[in-house]
Amino acid sequence: MKNIKILSAVVVVAVTFISFKGIQKNKETEKAEITAIFNDCVIDLEAQLEASLEMDKLNANDIEVLEINEEIDLGFDAFEYLPLDFDPYAGANLSDIDFEIFEEEDIVELGFETAAYLPADFDAYAL
User: Fold this and answer.
1) pLDDT digits over 52-105, tens only?
2) Residue 64 gets which letter from DSSP?
3) What is the 8-class DSSP label of residue 61?
4) In terms of pTM, does the model score above 0.70?
5) Distance spanning both ends of the chain, measured CA to CA
6) How many Cα atoms are found within 13 Å in the side-chain-facing hemisphere of 115?
7) Taking Cα atoms as reference points, which of 59, 58, 57, 39 lies closest to residue 47?
8) CA 93/CA 66 separation, integer angstroms
9) What is d(CA 52, CA 58) in angstroms, rounded to the nearest whole number?
10) pLDDT tens digit string along 6-38?
11) What whole-number distance in Å separates Cα of residue 38 and Cα of residue 78?
């Protein structure tokens, strides 16, 4: 009976040590996988940084702009409906000053009087 207890104790201790060794191997494997993923990310980051540095060397004169002029088929000849003296390029010498841009502002209702929370000499339009 005493030998069975000693034998079972030895088996329990051996299994415990083997399991700790397996846990250690598993941790080493996870660490190696994480290191590999990190190295891949570093390589990708270095490639992106090199590409961004190459973009900084790009000259604006090297860029070619392609304009696609597509004809629009209205289903009828628009020339028949225009006046005889129609000039589509008349007034083409307009500048930005000739146009006024109006932006409609939305009125915000806060539900309370804001003047009570502002200083007495507050001017919203002062520069």
Assistant:
1) 777 667 777 777 878 888 888 888 888 888 888 888 878 777 777 766 777 777
2) -
3) G
4) no
5) 99
6) 3
7) 39
8) 24
9) 10
10) 767 777 766 676 666 555 666 777 888 888 777
11) 64
Residue with tokens 């080493």: 28
How far is the C-alpha of 3 from the C-alpha of 10, rounded, in Å? Answer: 10
DSSP states along 67-124: --------SS-GGGGS-TT--TTTTTT--GGG-----PPPPP--SS-GGGGS-TT--T
**Burial annotation 83-120 (CB, 10 A radius, 16+ → b, else e):** eeeeeeeeeeeeeeeeeeeeeeeeeeeeeeeeeeeeee
Distances in Å between the alpha carbon of 16 and those of 27, 52, 113, 126? 17, 54, 74, 80
